[in-house]
Amino acid sequence: MNFGSLAKEYGTPLYVYNFNYFKEQYEKLKNAFSGRKSLLAYAIKANSNLSVVKHFGELGSGADCVSIGEVRRALKAGIKPYKIIFSGVGKRDDEIKEAIESDILFINAESEGELKRIEAIAKELGKEARISLRVNPNIDAKTHPYISTGLSENKFGVSIDEAKKLYLYAHKSNNLNPVGIHFHIGSQLTKLEPILESSKIVADLVRNLAKINIDIKFFDVGGGLGVKYNNESTIEPYDYAQAILSTLSGLDVTIVCEPGRFLVANGGYFITKVLYEKKSDSKRFVIVDGGMNDLIRPSLYNAYHKIEVLGKERDAGSVVDVVGPVCESGDFLAKNIELPQTIHNDLLVVHSSGAYGFVMSSNYNTRARPAEVALIDDKPKLIRKRESFEDIIALEEEFIQE
Ligand code: LLP
Question: Are residues 201 and 298 in the same domain?
Fold first, then answer.
Protein backbone atom coordinates (compact mmCIF):
# COMPACT_ATOMS: atom_id res chain seq x y z
CA MET A 1 0.00 0.00 0.00
CA ASN A 2 1.57 3.23 -1.08
CA PHE A 3 0.11 5.71 1.37
CA GLY A 4 2.51 8.41 0.19
CA SER A 5 1.17 8.49 -3.33
CA LEU A 6 -2.44 8.16 -2.11
CA ALA A 7 -1.97 11.18 0.16
CA LYS A 8 -0.47 13.10 -2.76
CA GLU A 9 -3.32 12.25 -5.07
CA TYR A 10 -6.29 12.56 -2.70
CA GLY A 11 -4.96 14.89 0.02
CA THR A 12 -5.14 14.45 3.80
CA PRO A 13 -6.75 13.62 6.13
CA LEU A 14 -7.80 10.53 4.23
CA TYR A 15 -9.43 7.17 4.86
CA VAL A 16 -8.06 4.20 2.90
CA TYR A 17 -9.78 0.80 2.86
CA ASN A 18 -8.32 -2.48 1.68
CA PHE A 19 -11.26 -4.25 0.02
CA ASN A 20 -9.29 -7.48 -0.37
CA TYR A 21 -8.89 -7.63 3.42
CA PHE A 22 -12.65 -7.04 3.85
CA LYS A 23 -13.30 -10.04 1.62
CA GLU A 24 -10.87 -12.27 3.54
CA GLN A 25 -12.53 -11.40 6.84
CA TYR A 26 -16.00 -12.02 5.42
CA GLU A 27 -14.98 -15.43 4.11
CA LYS A 28 -13.24 -16.40 7.35
CA LEU A 29 -16.39 -15.82 9.34
CA LYS A 30 -18.77 -17.26 6.77
CA ASN A 31 -16.67 -20.43 6.52
CA ALA A 32 -16.66 -20.78 10.29
CA PHE A 33 -20.40 -21.46 10.08
CA SER A 34 -20.10 -23.81 7.12
CA GLY A 35 -22.37 -26.81 7.20
CA ARG A 36 -25.12 -24.77 8.90
CA LYS A 37 -27.67 -22.41 7.41
CA SER A 38 -26.27 -18.97 8.10
CA LEU A 39 -26.60 -15.38 7.04
CA LEU A 40 -23.92 -12.79 7.74
CA ALA A 41 -25.69 -9.45 7.88
CA TYR A 42 -22.94 -6.83 7.80
CA ALA A 43 -23.64 -4.18 10.49
CA ILE A 44 -23.38 -1.29 8.13
CA LYS A 45 -23.12 1.25 10.93
CA ALA A 46 -19.43 0.27 11.18
CA ASN A 47 -18.66 1.66 7.75
CA SER A 48 -21.64 2.52 5.62
CA ASN A 49 -19.99 3.88 2.49
CA LEU A 50 -22.12 2.62 -0.42
CA SER A 51 -19.14 0.98 -2.12
CA VAL A 52 -18.24 -0.87 1.07
CA VAL A 53 -21.81 -2.13 1.52
CA LYS A 54 -21.97 -3.10 -2.15
CA HIS A 55 -18.69 -5.01 -1.82
CA PHE A 56 -20.11 -7.11 1.02
CA GLY A 57 -23.41 -7.53 -0.83
CA GLU A 58 -21.55 -8.98 -3.79
CA LEU A 59 -19.91 -11.51 -1.47
CA GLY A 60 -23.39 -12.65 -0.40
CA SER A 61 -23.72 -10.60 2.75
CA GLY A 62 -26.97 -9.19 4.08
CA ALA A 63 -27.20 -5.97 6.09
CA ASP A 64 -27.99 -5.16 9.69
CA CYS A 65 -29.44 -1.65 9.75
CA VAL A 66 -30.32 0.68 12.61
CA SER A 67 -32.21 3.43 10.83
CA ILE A 68 -34.34 3.68 7.73
CA GLY A 69 -31.43 5.60 6.22
CA GLU A 70 -29.29 2.50 6.61
CA VAL A 71 -32.07 0.31 5.14
CA ARG A 72 -32.16 2.63 2.11
CA ARG A 73 -28.38 2.49 1.84
CA ALA A 74 -28.43 -1.32 1.90
CA LEU A 75 -31.13 -1.45 -0.79
CA LYS A 76 -29.31 1.14 -2.88
CA ALA A 77 -26.13 -0.93 -2.61
CA GLY A 78 -28.04 -3.84 -4.12
CA ILE A 79 -28.68 -5.93 -1.02
CA LYS A 80 -31.90 -7.90 -1.41
CA PRO A 81 -34.71 -7.08 1.04
CA TYR A 82 -34.80 -10.69 2.26
CA LYS A 83 -31.26 -10.23 3.61
CA ILE A 84 -31.96 -6.99 5.48
CA ILE A 85 -32.63 -6.71 9.21
CA PHE A 86 -33.79 -3.56 10.94
CA SER A 87 -32.60 -3.25 14.57
CA GLY A 88 -32.38 -0.36 17.02
CA VAL A 89 -33.94 0.67 20.30
CA GLY A 90 -36.16 3.50 19.03
CA LYS A 91 -37.74 3.22 15.62
CA ARG A 92 -40.14 5.92 14.42
CA ASP A 93 -43.55 5.14 12.87
CA ASP A 94 -42.43 6.24 9.41
CA GLU A 95 -39.34 4.01 9.67
CA ILE A 96 -41.42 0.99 10.69
CA LYS A 97 -43.90 1.64 7.87
CA GLU A 98 -41.18 1.86 5.24
CA ALA A 99 -39.44 -1.26 6.58
CA ILE A 100 -42.67 -3.28 6.37
CA GLU A 101 -43.40 -1.96 2.89
CA SER A 102 -39.85 -2.83 1.79
CA ASP A 103 -40.53 -6.45 2.78
CA ILE A 104 -37.23 -6.89 4.65
CA LEU A 105 -36.31 -10.16 6.41
CA PHE A 106 -37.45 -9.00 9.85
CA ILE A 107 -37.66 -6.07 12.22
CA ASN A 108 -35.97 -6.51 15.57
CA ALA A 109 -38.36 -5.18 18.20
CA GLU A 110 -36.75 -4.00 21.41
CA SER A 111 -39.74 -3.32 23.70
CA GLU A 112 -43.42 -4.10 24.20
CA GLY A 113 -44.28 -0.58 23.09
CA GLU A 114 -42.36 -0.99 19.86
CA LEU A 115 -43.85 -4.43 19.16
CA LYS A 116 -47.33 -2.97 19.48
CA ARG A 117 -46.50 -0.05 17.19
CA ILE A 118 -45.21 -2.52 14.59
CA GLU A 119 -48.47 -4.47 14.93
CA ALA A 120 -50.63 -1.35 14.58
CA ILE A 121 -48.73 -0.12 11.54
CA ALA A 122 -48.82 -3.55 9.87
CA LYS A 123 -52.58 -3.62 10.49
CA GLU A 124 -53.04 -0.23 8.83
CA LEU A 125 -51.10 -1.56 5.86
CA GLY A 126 -53.09 -4.79 5.79
CA LYS A 127 -49.90 -6.78 6.21
CA GLU A 128 -48.19 -9.22 8.53
CA ALA A 129 -44.83 -7.93 9.79
CA ARG A 130 -42.01 -10.43 10.28
CA ILE A 131 -40.44 -9.69 13.63
CA SER A 132 -37.78 -10.84 15.99
CA LEU A 133 -37.41 -9.81 19.62
CA ARG A 134 -34.15 -8.58 21.00
CA VAL A 135 -33.68 -10.30 24.32
CA ASN A 136 -31.33 -9.07 26.95
CA PRO A 137 -29.70 -12.10 28.56
CA ASN A 138 -28.33 -10.02 31.45
CA ILE A 139 -24.74 -11.09 30.84
CA ASP A 140 -21.67 -8.94 31.38
CA ALA A 141 -19.81 -8.80 28.06
CA LYS A 142 -16.65 -7.51 29.78
CA THR A 143 -16.01 -4.76 27.28
CA HIS A 144 -15.95 -0.93 27.42
CA PRO A 145 -19.07 0.27 29.32
CA TYR A 146 -20.13 2.50 26.38
CA ILE A 147 -20.32 -0.52 24.06
CA SER A 148 -21.65 -3.09 26.51
CA THR A 149 -25.32 -3.81 25.85
CA GLY A 150 -26.31 -7.14 27.39
CA LEU A 151 -27.00 -6.16 31.01
CA SER A 152 -30.46 -5.35 32.37
CA GLU A 153 -29.12 -1.88 33.26
CA ASN A 154 -28.56 -1.22 29.51
CA LYS A 155 -31.36 0.24 27.41
CA PHE A 156 -31.45 -2.63 24.91
CA GLY A 157 -33.95 -5.46 24.45
CA VAL A 158 -36.37 -7.17 26.85
CA SER A 159 -35.81 -9.72 29.61
CA ILE A 160 -36.24 -13.44 28.96
CA ASP A 161 -39.49 -13.49 30.98
CA GLU A 162 -40.95 -10.55 29.15
CA ALA A 163 -39.86 -12.05 25.83
CA LYS A 164 -41.93 -15.20 26.50
CA LYS A 165 -45.02 -13.08 27.10
CA LEU A 166 -44.40 -10.98 23.98
CA TYR A 167 -43.79 -14.02 21.74
CA LEU A 168 -47.15 -15.42 22.85
CA TYR A 169 -48.77 -12.09 22.08
CA ALA A 170 -47.11 -11.89 18.64
CA HIS A 171 -48.01 -15.50 17.88
CA LYS A 172 -51.70 -14.73 18.42
CA SER A 173 -51.66 -11.49 16.45
CA ASN A 174 -52.92 -11.40 12.85
CA ASN A 175 -50.38 -8.77 11.93
CA LEU A 176 -47.19 -10.09 13.52
CA ASN A 177 -45.16 -13.11 12.51
CA PRO A 178 -42.44 -13.90 15.06
CA VAL A 179 -39.77 -15.51 12.91
CA GLY A 180 -36.60 -14.64 14.80
CA ILE A 181 -34.86 -14.07 18.09
CA HIS A 182 -31.99 -11.70 18.63
CA PHE A 183 -29.35 -10.82 21.19
CA HIS A 184 -26.28 -8.61 21.05
CA ILE A 185 -24.35 -8.24 24.29
CA GLY A 186 -21.77 -5.70 23.22
CA SER A 187 -19.01 -4.74 20.86
CA GLN A 188 -15.26 -5.48 20.76
CA LEU A 189 -15.84 -8.78 22.57
CA THR A 190 -12.62 -10.63 23.33
CA LYS A 191 -13.97 -13.28 25.71
CA LEU A 192 -15.91 -16.29 24.52
CA GLU A 193 -17.60 -17.15 27.81
CA PRO A 194 -20.23 -14.35 27.82
CA ILE A 195 -21.19 -15.20 24.22
CA LEU A 196 -21.55 -18.88 25.06
CA GLU A 197 -23.60 -18.10 28.18
CA SER A 198 -25.93 -15.75 26.32
CA SER A 199 -26.38 -18.16 23.45
CA LYS A 200 -27.31 -20.94 25.91
CA ILE A 201 -29.91 -18.76 27.61
CA VAL A 202 -31.46 -17.65 24.34
CA ALA A 203 -31.41 -21.16 22.81
CA ASP A 204 -33.25 -22.46 25.90
CA LEU A 205 -35.91 -19.85 25.32
CA VAL A 206 -36.23 -20.98 21.69
CA ARG A 207 -36.72 -24.59 22.88
CA ASN A 208 -39.39 -23.46 25.32
CA LEU A 209 -41.16 -21.52 22.60
CA ALA A 210 -41.09 -24.58 20.33
CA LYS A 211 -43.01 -26.49 23.01
CA ILE A 212 -45.88 -24.05 22.61
CA ASN A 213 -45.70 -24.19 18.81
CA ILE A 214 -43.84 -20.94 18.32
CA ASP A 215 -41.35 -21.86 15.69
CA ILE A 216 -38.32 -19.55 15.62
CA LYS A 217 -36.48 -19.77 12.29
CA PHE A 218 -33.70 -17.19 12.70
CA PHE A 219 -31.28 -17.26 15.62
CA ASP A 220 -29.60 -13.86 15.47
CA VAL A 221 -26.46 -13.70 17.61
CA GLY A 222 -25.77 -10.02 16.95
CA GLY A 223 -22.29 -8.73 16.21
CA GLY A 224 -19.48 -7.83 18.53
CA LEU A 225 -16.57 -10.05 17.56
CA GLY A 226 -13.50 -8.14 18.70
CA VAL A 227 -10.31 -7.35 16.78
CA LYS A 228 -6.69 -6.60 17.65
CA TYR A 229 -6.02 -2.89 18.02
CA ASN A 230 -2.95 -3.52 20.14
CA ASN A 231 -2.02 -6.81 21.75
CA GLU A 232 -5.47 -8.00 22.85
CA SER A 233 -6.08 -11.72 22.56
CA THR A 234 -9.09 -12.15 20.33
CA ILE A 235 -11.61 -14.89 19.59
CA GLU A 236 -11.02 -17.05 16.51
CA PRO A 237 -14.05 -17.15 14.18
CA TYR A 238 -14.03 -20.96 14.30
CA ASP A 239 -14.21 -21.00 18.12
CA TYR A 240 -16.90 -18.34 18.05
CA ALA A 241 -19.02 -20.36 15.63
CA GLN A 242 -18.44 -23.62 17.51
CA ALA A 243 -19.48 -22.04 20.81
CA ILE A 244 -22.74 -20.83 19.31
CA LEU A 245 -23.41 -24.09 17.47
CA SER A 246 -22.82 -26.06 20.67
CA THR A 247 -25.88 -24.38 22.20
CA LEU A 248 -28.23 -25.15 19.32
CA SER A 249 -28.64 -28.90 19.53
CA GLY A 250 -32.07 -30.04 18.43
CA LEU A 251 -32.86 -26.68 16.82
CA ASP A 252 -33.34 -26.21 13.11
CA VAL A 253 -32.57 -22.52 12.81
CA THR A 254 -30.70 -20.26 10.42
CA ILE A 255 -27.91 -18.52 12.29
CA VAL A 256 -27.81 -14.81 11.64
CA CYS A 257 -24.70 -12.90 12.63
CA GLU A 258 -24.24 -9.12 12.44
CA PRO A 259 -20.51 -8.43 12.33
CA GLY A 260 -19.30 -4.89 11.84
CA ARG A 261 -15.88 -4.23 13.31
CA PHE A 262 -14.54 -7.73 12.61
CA LEU A 263 -15.05 -7.25 8.88
CA VAL A 264 -13.65 -3.76 8.45
CA ALA A 265 -11.62 -2.39 11.37
CA ASN A 266 -8.20 -3.68 10.44
CA GLY A 267 -8.64 -3.09 6.72
CA GLY A 268 -8.89 0.67 7.22
CA TYR A 269 -6.20 3.34 7.64
CA PHE A 270 -6.52 6.98 8.52
CA ILE A 271 -3.77 9.06 6.92
CA THR A 272 -2.98 12.43 8.41
CA LYS A 273 -0.21 14.93 7.83
CA VAL A 274 2.11 16.47 10.39
CA LEU A 275 1.68 20.23 10.65
CA TYR A 276 4.00 21.04 13.54
CA GLU A 277 5.93 19.64 16.45
CA LYS A 278 5.83 21.54 19.69
CA LYS A 279 7.18 21.13 23.21
CA SER A 280 5.74 22.42 26.44
CA ASP A 281 7.61 22.19 29.76
CA SER A 282 6.26 18.74 30.31
CA LYS A 283 5.21 17.35 26.95
CA ARG A 284 6.07 16.78 23.33
CA PHE A 285 3.19 17.21 20.86
CA VAL A 286 2.83 16.27 17.22
CA ILE A 287 0.08 18.41 15.74
CA VAL A 288 -1.61 16.86 12.70
CA ASP A 289 -4.25 17.88 10.18
CA GLY A 290 -6.73 15.15 11.28
CA GLY A 291 -8.72 15.64 14.45
CA MET A 292 -11.43 14.26 16.68
CA ASN A 293 -14.05 15.34 14.15
CA ASP A 294 -12.47 12.90 11.67
CA LEU A 295 -11.69 10.00 14.01
CA ILE A 296 -13.35 10.28 17.40
CA ARG A 297 -12.60 6.85 18.90
CA PRO A 298 -9.50 7.92 20.88
CA SER A 299 -11.32 10.95 22.36
CA LEU A 300 -14.59 9.15 23.03
CA TYR A 301 -13.44 5.77 24.36
CA ASN A 302 -9.77 6.40 25.00
CA ALA A 303 -9.36 3.83 22.24
CA TYR A 304 -5.87 2.82 21.15
CA HIS A 305 -4.95 3.02 17.46
CA LYS A 306 -1.42 2.13 16.44
CA ILE A 307 0.30 5.07 14.73
CA GLU A 308 3.37 5.03 12.51
CA VAL A 309 5.31 7.76 10.76
CA LEU A 310 5.54 6.80 7.11
CA GLY A 311 9.13 6.01 6.14
CA LYS A 312 10.31 6.21 9.77
CA GLU A 313 8.66 3.02 11.06
CA ARG A 314 11.91 1.68 12.48
CA ASP A 315 13.40 4.94 13.79
CA ALA A 316 13.89 5.40 17.52
CA GLY A 317 11.21 7.49 19.17
CA SER A 318 10.31 9.43 22.26
CA VAL A 319 7.05 9.93 24.11
CA VAL A 320 4.50 12.16 22.46
CA ASP A 321 0.82 13.11 22.27
CA VAL A 322 -0.58 13.16 18.74
CA VAL A 323 -3.17 15.94 18.67
CA GLY A 324 -5.50 17.47 16.11
CA PRO A 325 -6.37 21.07 15.27
CA VAL A 326 -9.80 21.09 16.98
CA CYS A 327 -10.24 23.50 19.88
CA GLU A 328 -10.73 20.87 22.59
CA SER A 329 -8.21 19.33 24.97
CA GLY A 330 -9.94 16.03 24.20
CA ASP A 331 -8.83 16.28 20.58
CA PHE A 332 -6.14 13.65 20.33
CA LEU A 333 -5.39 10.57 18.25
CA ALA A 334 -2.96 9.10 20.78
CA LYS A 335 -1.49 9.93 24.16
CA ASN A 336 1.94 9.01 25.48
CA ILE A 337 3.03 6.86 22.57
CA GLU A 338 6.56 6.62 21.19
CA LEU A 339 7.16 8.29 17.84
CA PRO A 340 10.33 9.39 16.04
CA GLN A 341 11.00 13.06 15.44
CA THR A 342 8.71 14.37 12.71
CA ILE A 343 8.86 17.32 10.36
CA HIS A 344 6.24 19.35 8.51
CA ASN A 345 4.39 17.17 5.92
CA ASP A 346 5.45 13.80 7.35
CA LEU A 347 2.57 11.37 7.06
CA LEU A 348 1.12 9.42 9.96
CA VAL A 349 -0.68 6.15 9.36
CA VAL A 350 -3.36 5.51 11.98
CA HIS A 351 -4.16 1.79 11.89
CA SER A 352 -7.41 -0.12 12.53
CA SER A 353 -9.53 2.80 11.34
CA GLY A 354 -11.94 0.96 9.03
CA ALA A 355 -14.71 0.57 11.64
CA TYR A 356 -16.47 3.47 13.37
CA GLY A 357 -14.07 5.92 11.79
CA PHE A 358 -15.52 7.96 8.97
CA VAL A 359 -19.10 7.11 10.01
CA MET A 360 -18.65 8.88 13.33
CA SER A 361 -17.01 11.95 11.80
CA SER A 362 -18.58 15.40 11.94
CA ASN A 363 -18.17 18.95 10.69
CA TYR A 364 -17.27 20.31 14.13
CA ASN A 365 -15.19 23.48 13.79
CA THR A 366 -16.51 23.72 10.19
CA ARG A 367 -14.01 21.13 9.13
CA ALA A 368 -14.73 19.30 5.89
CA ARG A 369 -14.87 15.53 6.29
CA PRO A 370 -12.09 13.45 4.71
CA ALA A 371 -12.20 11.62 1.40
CA GLU A 372 -12.45 7.83 1.34
CA VAL A 373 -10.47 5.64 -1.03
CA ALA A 374 -10.88 1.92 -1.71
CA LEU A 375 -7.95 -0.27 -2.65
CA ILE A 376 -9.03 -3.18 -4.81
CA ASP A 377 -6.13 -5.46 -5.73
CA ASP A 378 -3.97 -2.50 -4.67
CA LYS A 379 -5.63 -0.20 -7.21
CA PRO A 380 -7.13 2.94 -5.69
CA LYS A 381 -10.66 4.15 -6.33
CA LEU A 382 -12.18 7.26 -4.78
CA ILE A 383 -15.41 6.18 -3.05
CA ARG A 384 -16.25 9.48 -1.34
CA LYS A 385 -15.03 12.89 -2.33
CA ARG A 386 -13.51 15.21 0.21
CA GLU A 387 -16.20 17.63 1.42
CA SER A 388 -15.95 21.27 0.43
CA PHE A 389 -16.93 24.34 2.42
CA GLU A 390 -19.97 24.63 0.13
CA ASP A 391 -21.01 21.07 1.03
CA ILE A 392 -20.87 21.93 4.71
CA ILE A 393 -23.13 24.96 4.45
CA ALA A 394 -25.38 23.62 1.68
CA LEU A 395 -28.44 23.12 3.88
CA GLU A 396 -28.16 26.36 5.80
CA GLU A 397 -30.22 29.44 5.03
CA GLU A 398 -29.11 32.96 5.69
CA PHE A 399 -31.32 34.62 8.24
CA ILE A 400 -32.66 37.88 6.86
CA GLN A 401 -34.58 40.21 9.14
CA GLU A 402 -37.87 41.24 7.44
N1 LLP B 1 -25.62 -5.56 15.98
C2 LLP B 1 -26.08 -4.64 16.86
C3 LLP B 1 -27.45 -4.74 17.32
C4 LLP B 1 -25.23 -3.60 17.29
O5 LLP B 1 -25.68 -2.72 18.16
C6 LLP B 1 -23.90 -3.53 16.81
C7 LLP B 1 -23.00 -2.45 17.23
C8 LLP B 1 -23.47 -4.50 15.90
C9 LLP B 1 -24.35 -5.51 15.51
C10 LLP B 1 -22.09 -4.51 15.33
O11 LLP B 1 -21.15 -4.66 16.34
P12 LLP B 1 -19.61 -4.93 15.96
O13 LLP B 1 -19.55 -6.26 15.27
O14 LLP B 1 -19.15 -3.83 15.09
O15 LLP B 1 -18.93 -4.93 17.28
N16 LLP B 1 -18.75 3.15 18.06
C17 LLP B 1 -18.25 2.06 18.86
C18 LLP B 1 -18.97 0.76 18.58
C19 LLP B 1 -20.47 0.82 18.75
C20 LLP B 1 -21.15 -0.47 18.41
C21 LLP B 1 -22.63 -0.32 18.38
N22 LLP B 1 -23.36 -1.50 18.02
C23 LLP B 1 -16.75 1.95 18.66
O24 LLP B 1 -16.19 2.75 17.93
O25 LLP B 1 -16.10 1.10 19.26
Answer: no
